[in-house]
Amino acid sequence: MEPTTLPDVTTARTPDLRTPLPGPLAQAIIARDHQFVSPSYTRSYPFVMQRGSGVMAQDPDGNIFLDLAAGVAVCATGHAHPEVVRAIQEQAEQFLHICAADFYYPHLPILAEKLATLTPGIPDKRVHFANSGAEAVEGAIKVAFHATRRQKLIGFTGSFHGRTLGALSVTASKAAQRKGFGRQALDVTHVPYANCFRCPYGKTPETCGALESKGPHCARVIEEVVMKTTVPPDECAAIIVEPIQGEGGYVVPPASFLQTLQDIAQRHDVVVIADEVQSGMGRTGKMYAAEHFGFVPDVVATAKGLASGLPIGATVARADLMTWKPGAHASTFGGNPVAVAASLATIRLLESSLMANAERMGQYLMDGLRALAERHPIIGDVRGKGLMIGIELVRDRVTREPAVHERDRFEQACYQRGLLVIACGASTIRLSPALVIDRDHCDCALSTFDEILTAGL
User: Fold this and answer.
1) Is the peptide bond before 22 cis (omega within 30 degrees of 0)?
2) Three-state SS across 132-177?
3) How far is CA 252 from the centre of its chain?
4) With CB atoms counted within 10 Å of each terminal CB, which end of the chain scores lower, N or C?
5) Domains in the chain: boundaries
């Protein structure tokens, strides 16, 4: 195929597949990757990215896909948004790097002030910049340790906070992420997350207290059991929680779960850390998912969609907590000027229209998926906020047995039809498209899902 015959991804509206997948050029890249790149990366299917525009992605053979993953919720404004690209170019022409740990530059405090204002709670906060979500989580944990002079942590099963040794200690998503790395670096006790679809306590919102002032059992167990047996409150530095669990299955808890955690923490002077790495930056229709629940954490870790694809993370903490002295915590590349410029452009776009679009299109997709669930019993649950949506597949709606292999086949079938989706949890497909998605894109996804489910898994 001659390059001039390839379709133009910038004008494409639906998938356009020209070769068997993967095509010959993609196969050559994959072969080289297998030879030289770490085998620790998890690739569910052989898609190779060559170029992107908005929610559309193109491989080197010219095949065009509808991207419903957005780099795992990273490309908030879509692939190569012109305003973000322009901000990157303009900053790159000025200077590429200056170490924020050693010198000052204008855009860093501008972004810090913006994040202090956007995160839940009063704007009297301080911001530490990092390179990733894992580093933002590490920073949040260090803030809690330094402020409280305590060393124990409480986290949740199903959680994913990163792969560095500290973040891995609070992660409890998959055994494969821990296997082979020895004991956890930090003293962490994990308790079950508020997954009402699969309550580990065998309760319902009506029987667990979630609808009462006392709050749900899965939150109360921290104070009633854990703090009385294994984590004395005066040794507990922080409770770290995802307001909406990501890798664990796109699980949306009842608001009372997060509010009860906050109440318990306040009674015992424990820091509450919200990991908003995946759920933040407008993805849920609000800037941060915590806002849906009336939840005000002490520290927020944010990254992924923060700069539309450039590597940046931030730890945003109450000013009275982030009081460490010069040299206590820093990063050579954290707050890189080009990434900061991309972040400021991203935030402008989110505030002007894309956050509202995430709310509208998220509801449109949820309505469509629930209609599909009425026709396809394999869909056990549809849940989410905005454009953070989980589709959990089950073999039986009564037993709710996870349809693991069927989920994996669904993922592959989407790829073969030109849709990019990724899995999470035991048997969930997650949808985290760029916030520029429109109704036509959603209709394309829904009709493709229907076609796959009708054909059978």
Assistant:
1) yes
2) CHHHHHHHHHHHHHHHHCCCEEEEECCCCCCCCHHHHHHCCCCHHH
3) 13
4) N
5) 3-80+353-455, 83-350
In this structure, what DSSP letter does residue 209 have? S
Q: Rounded CA gap, 177 and 306, in Å?
A: 25
Nearest Cα neighbor of 219 from 231, 208, 207 is 208
Q: Which residues pair with 454 in a beta bridge?
A: none
Q: 267-271 long-range CB contacts below 8 Å, 24 or more apart?
A: 267/223, 268/223, 268/227, 268/233, 268/234, 268/236, 269/148, 269/233, 270/148, 270/233, 270/236, 270/237, 270/238, 270/239, 271/143, 271/144, 271/147, 271/148, 271/237, 271/238, 271/239, 271/298, 271/299, 271/321
Q: Nearest to residue 450, comparing CAs of 390, 397, 393, 371?
A: 371
- Between CA 77 and CA 91 the distance in angstroms is 18
What's the CATH class of domain 83-350? alpha beta
Residues 55-97: pLDDT tens digits?
Answer: 999 999 999 999 999 999 999 999 999 999 999 999 999 999 9
Least confident of 22-26, 211-215, 275-279, 301-305: 211-215
What is the model's pLDDT at position 4? 54
Residues across the chain? 457
Sign, CA dihedral 47-49-55-56, equals negative
pTM given for the model:
0.96
Considering the segment(s) 3-80+353-455 as one domain, its CATH architecture is Alpha-Beta Complex (3.90)
Q: Please tell me whether residue 244 adopts helix, strand or coil conformation.
A: coil
Same fold for the pair 3-80+353-455 and 83-350? no
> What tens digit of pLDDT does each residue of 288-312 get?
999 999 999 999 999 999 999 999 9
Output DSSP code: residue 308.
B
Q: What is the pLDDT of residues 346-397, one digit of tens each?
A: 999 999 999 999 999 999 999 999 999 999 999 999 999 999 999 999 999 9
Which three-class secondary structure state does DSSP give residue 250?
A: coil
